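1st attempt posting a full record on here, be nice pls
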Amino acid sequence: MAQNAQWPDRQSSRYLGKNIPRVDGPAKVTGAAKYTYDVVLPGMLYGAILRCPHASAKVRSINFLSPREGAGVRGAAARSMPGVVVVLTDIGRTARFAGEEIAAVAAETEEIARDALKAINVDYEVQPFVSNTLRGKDIPDRVGEPQINSRGEDPDALWAQAAAVVEGEYYVPVREHLCLETHGVVVRWDADDALTCWCSTQAVHGVAGELAAGLGVPRQNVKVICEVMGGGFGSKFSPGVEGLTAARLAKAAGRPVKLMLDRYEEQVATGNGPDAYMRCKAAATSDGRILAIRADLFGTGGYSRRWAVPFPYSTYNVPNVRVAMRGVQTNAGSQRALRAPGHPQGCFLTETVVDELAVALKMDPLEFRLRNVGGGVWQEQLRLGAERIGGSRRASLPKSGRLRRGIGAACTTWGGGGRGGSVCEVRVGNDGSVWVGIGTQDLGTGTRTYVAAIVAEVLGLPIERVTADIGKSTLGNSGGSGGSVTAASVSPAVMMAALSARERLAQTAAAMLGISAGDV
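the predicted structure (as tokens):
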């Protein structure tokens, strides 16, 4: 039966495709939900990280000074300050950006831990640095090899044929994640080589694997828990330096350690959505068709030269293209995934050029897009969007004065879709209660609710009778929550497990009643 399973019709379903309350809503609005920030364990210490204030530097030496004594005077070691339990000085010896980790402490309170950082005196050898793409793009040894996107004819041979040509420089700035709940962990060693980690993460299984590899312990000895979390946006797939550091502090102290980043740390050390600078020349024909684009793009992934964005954006048909993209190494924090990596940049750059071509042709921007988007679905969506927002009002809007209103259009896309490999378990209790467990996590998108709803739908139960257990690496394997794949990856596994449980229940009841499973 399960092999030929079909999702129930939306009209006849009780929960699926319906507007239902979230199962974890009451816990969140009453404050009962436990975020990583809320975890407090017996005997817990608080960790803090000393970060380099320089964009590029080498550590010559580290001294531990009492905060009561002047700089340069060798005084009481920070590790001997009242309340300080552990000091680690080997976190980093070279800083590639301001905010990179150098040392760490664990203390009885967060305040003591922060004070202890002030007692650590680091002698830095400051190095030359480049702070941003616009400066770094003109320094050859900072720029990587170009990635070339080339098709059709050479645009330089086509400019004379065009009815409109635009040329300019464009820039998309760096963006930050700034999750409501900052990055961080609570770590407890349960034995010499076994640990439990409460982590604000988008990937409980991924974090467990990275902790095991980084700490040299068996993967099965690491348990990662993320009951609820306050945002990720692509920045929380890894335990980060803070996670591994907290585990080392806890190991050295023999006590649990909480290490949650503050807002400054969140901005400098947890990754970003990179920038994009572009020099571009583009042309269009008199009938409103994009003819050609030539562009040079630069962007920084921080201290890595890896960088690229989709340009020109795939929503438009551009027959003749010559584009070169180069990553620029800068002394800034590294890039991380941030809501469709690369797409906001590629979309903004393309749409700005498209708008300028429409203006140069004196053509309505919507009409220009309709002539250049690929596929009927884009045309349908653009027309529908224009209708819903009253796009016909655009021509009548005031075009002078200090305050103006406008109506615009733009196209964007993202893949998403499901991934295989999720493992789900459904248990039916003697009292008729149902438990479903799968090692996924809920970023706030409702994962726990639809896991419970699917099982309730298949078994014909009120959703209140189903306990959805997620956010633990000890549950069945499932991938990280990113790329808009979680619902499509998790749901089929949950449905198949629920159908298997229903069949097993029918077989058990049939044997007890002396009838066939089909009759049950």
